[in-house]
Amino acid sequence: MQIAILLYDRFTALDAVGPYEVLSRLPDAKVTFVAEQAGLVRTDTRQLSLGVDATLGEVERPDIVVVPGGPGQVALMQDGPVHAWLRNAHEHSTWTTSVCTGSLILAAAGLLQDRRATSNWQALDQLRGLGADVVEERVVFDSKLATSAGVTAGIDMALALAGKIAGEQVAQAIQLGLEYDPEPPFGAGSPATAPAAVVEAVRAYSRFA
Amino acid sequence: MQIAILLYDRFTALDAVGPYEVLSRLPDAKVTFVAEQAGLVRTDTRQLSLGVDATLGEVERPDIVVVPGGPGQVALMQDGPVHAWLRNAHEHSTWTTSVCTGSLILAAAGLLQDRRATSNWQALDQLRGLGADVVEERVVFDSKLATSAGVTAGIDMALALAGKIAGEQVAQAIQLGLEYDPEPPFGAGSPATAPAAVVEAVRAYSRFA
Q: Which fold has domain A2-205?
């Protein structure tokens, strides 16, 4: 089972590494980090780089596609090699997935038209404008599409997907292996629960503002 | 504020990238991924590589040290350049931290003697044997040491640390930025809650068995 995770300049590392850590533990999984060019890709903070193990042309028909989000998504909203690769891969994939603003790229490539989908809480209006049927849930499945909310939601999405692919026991074993029994020290993980001042601060700072 | 994250062959990616994603968002944070040699370091699955941005000798006095875990930890239990670097860095650090079996490396380097500390649930006996005062909690603070349980616990540890460093509002803004409002699809994230068959399967599979 080949899993292709798309890398691009200024992606958010955890959007990619969360699902990688879960999906790479599925039986017979082979994760390949792909990008337009070989080499290294820098994350949004510029403080981390990940190695590209194959170019897009080298992994044309993965079973699972994962598209992370991040500020670099903005540069991938026009048609081009990434959109062409996504459309072709999606035609043959078993699952096409995204984390955070990765769903904006899927939508821009035409893959989310009238599909139930989600994204980072600050990107939902834009996702709606691109033709998706926006659902404000952390993980949203629609046929073979799985989209998730911001950054850390990719872990929940990947675990749910692992359950669908390999059964509940395997997914639970992966969860235990990752000791994923979260205890956030604060309750500010969603705009519905964060203090209003924190929500405003994040909005003001954000590229979506 | 310089944050050094130690990389080594066969580390677990999420152990490093979880704390990176949180701590890199602190005001004035500069994260540097360090290793004995420059180049790329491969993770435990061999399916992902991260770039090393500095050698150990180039970052001798970071403010924060993060030691991830992973199967490669086994090769770092003898005294050597990594232990020497850790002892020296710890002498000057503001915080010395670990995720998962990273605490076994800290303990082997002599930094956890009689200190309250934790690790992956399967490594607690070994940690105790190395002289630590083992506490079965997800995140454990003892003076300037912060250790955490397996893999994903590094996210919780880093958020708690962010709160101590920059205050609760900043930590909450980081949490909201990462939309860290976890909804695990299963309740199997700890040996206390996972079905017995799942716990046994993970034990049987594991290097700690």
A: Rossmann fold (3.40.50)
